[in-house]
Write a structure and sequence with these properties.
With about 240 residues, this protein is of the alpha/beta class. The protein has five helices and eleven strands, in the order βββββαββαβαβαβαβ. The strands form two sheets. The chain has a six-stranded antiparallel β-sheet with strand order 4-3-6-1-2-5, with helices on one face. A five-stranded parallel β-sheet has the order 9-8-7-10-11, with helices on both faces. The structure holds flavin-adenine dinucleotide.
């Protein structure tokens, strides 16, 4: 774990924009004076209107720390002030105000074996952890559970499946798995095998986070070893 580093506002140029499906936008940012992040950290993005009205929200990094660009994956919420702008309006070449990387608690560098459970956009920081683990050849230290309504709505679905994450869809069947949130037995297998996980990470909406913490408890994970990051209506 690194000591908290003072971060200042800087600017980032959008180097790539990719719209996946109807609700997700992947942004690749060239951040001025960028500091390397830890998997799990986030950036704050601040939008400024011509009358100087500003709105700022937090977005987790999806990129591996050694990626020269910072990757964000934003889910467009109905009438969401910032996510709708990033989804509908943002273009390559636009300059955003950003601050980061931020966060010291919800980070995983590979020092402990862990189970990580993300719901919807909550999988984004777990993707950074997975990419980091794969680059270092320590993928066996991180077991990821990704939960989405449908495969199309789940950010990074293909990459998560290819990396061996356990994917649970709640509104459509996936292979032989019937649509349902993850069962405690499914999570217990990941908590226990091949060696017991020392820590757990939970990321998603407030409702999802309480569900995932309960399931982890039923699967035998100690509450003191569970680190939670919640996405509220604003961040
Ligand atoms: C640490 C952290 C990391 C995050 N990482 C990500 C990430 O990687 N990807 C991601 O997509 N999100 C992430 N979030 C969530 C993100 O910060 C925003 O909360 C999200 O994008 C919504 O912001 P918005 O401005 O689009 O919507 P907001 O304008 O904040 O609105 C959110 C929702 O509430 C509704 N709403 C707003 N005001 C009212 C009201 N008065 N009455 C009723 N409904 C209302 C809106 O219609 C909308 O659906 C993260 C949050 C945190 C805290």
């Amino acid at each position: 774990m690194t000591a908290a580093v003072e971060t200042r506002w800087t600017t980032a140029r959008i180097a790539a924009v990719e719209r996946d499906g109807t609700r997700l936008v992947r942004l690749r940012l060239d951040v001025d004076g960028r500091q390397e992040h830890l998997p799990g950290q986030h950036y704050v993005v601040r939008l400024r209107a011509s009358d100087d009205y500003t709105a700022q929200r937090s977005y987790s990094t999806a990129s591996d720390p050694t990626d020269p660009l910072v990757e964000l994956m934003v889910e467009c919420l109905p009438d969401g002030e910032v996510s709708a702008h990033l989804h509908d309006v943002a273009e390559v070449g636009d300059v955003l105000e950003v601050r980061g990387p931020i966060g010291g608690w919800f980070t995983w560098t590979g020092d402990v074996t862990a189970v990580a459970i993300g719901g919807g956009a909550g999988v984004v920081p777990l993707v950074s952890m997975l990419r980091h683990a794969r680059r270092l050849g320590i993928a066996d230290r991180l077991r990821v559970v990704a939960v989405g309504r449908t495969l199309e709505e789940l950010p990074y679905a293909e990459e998560l499946i290819a990396a061996g994450a356990f994917v649970a869809l709640t509104r459509e069947n996936l292979g032989s798995r019937v649509a349902a949130p993850p069962y405690p037995e499914e999570v217990r297998d990941l908590v226990d095998l091949p060696t017991p996980a020392e820590r757990a990470y939970v990321c998603g909406s407030v409702g999802f986070a309480s569900f995932a913490q309960r399931v982890l408890g039923e699967a035998g994970m100690r509450a003191s070893e569970v680190r939670v990051e919640q996405f509220g209506a604003t961040g």
